[in-house]
Amino acid sequence: METVNDKRRTREIRVVKRVLNVNERMAEQNRRRFAEKGVFVLNVMSSPGSGKTATLQKTLERIMPEIKAAVIVGDVSTTHDADRLSVTGAPVVQVNTDAFGGDCHLAAHVIEKAADEIDLDAITLLIVENVGNLVCPAEFDIGEDARVVVLSVTEGEDKPVKYPTMFRLCDAALLNKIDLLPHLDYEKDKALGYIHQVHPGMPVFEMSARTGEGLDAWIAWLKGKISSKLKAQS
Ligand SMILES: Nc1nc2c(ncn2[C@@H]2O[C@H](COP(=O)(O)OP(=O)(O)O)[C@@H](O)[C@H]2O)c(=O)[nH]1
Ligand SMILES: [Mg+2]
Question: What is the pTM of this model?
């Protein structure tokens, strides 16, 4: 027998599915648009404070101007991250989700509008710094070519198993703030074990956005991804 609660649950599931279907269609449209323009899109996700902006600052400093890049950055409010990223010289569009209900993620239609503010003919890499959250952003395809999750050593070892969807769907993980390891009782091997339990074989780049350690391997991986997409298209 279906209870009132069961009916309510069914209705909620249908609504969620509908929202996600609409998002998937929009994401495919974005993907076609970016492919036509020869733009590689990287979706960077993590919990707040793990070092997305710091990592992107250092990454942009190293890859530009060889790779022409732009950034869309999402936060509930403020333009702090856009201010920090603009210093690199890359065009930056800040999205504040408090204008539409304080969403904890960037949906595909938001990326479509934000991309209108960028000259896609002038770039080969569009980086999206998603809203800080290990749950919602993983659910929303935005039309990206690669997804990475930043995980810092100050967050504890078990986040990959607590938030497995994020780690399952990402193509690589950046284990950030390794400069702090001497001051912590963080068990790095335990964290790596959890990551690979959820996503066997996932590339993990141990790095510090503060000292620059480990950035070369991450950047080589990113450049490899960009050139395989561009080669496959030409
Ligand atoms: N010690 C250390 N601090 C870092 C590192 N990366 C980021 N931080 C600091 O962590 C805080 C949050 O970084 P931010 O880039 O704003 O994180 P986001 O919220 O993920 O974009 C800032 O105070 C950064 O300076 C790192 O590799 N080592
Ligand atoms: Mg940030």
Answer: 0.93
From the CA of 209, give the closest atom in ligand 1.
27
Question: How far is the centre of ligand 2, averaged over its atoms, from the C-alpha of 22 (Å)?
Answer: 27
Domain that holds residue 32: 4-233
Q: Can you read off the two tokens belonging to residue 28?
A: 């495919």
59 CA to centre of ligand 2 in angstroms: 14
* Strand 92-96 with 69-75, pairing: parallel
CATH of the domain at 167: 3.40.50.300
Using most ligand atoms within 8 A of CB, pick from 166, 177, 181, 183 the residue to mutate for ligand 1.
177
pLDDT along the chain (234 residues), means of 10: 56 73 95 97 98 98 97 95 96 94 93 98 98 95 98 98 98 98 98 98 98 98 95 80
Q: How many domains does the chain have?
A: 1
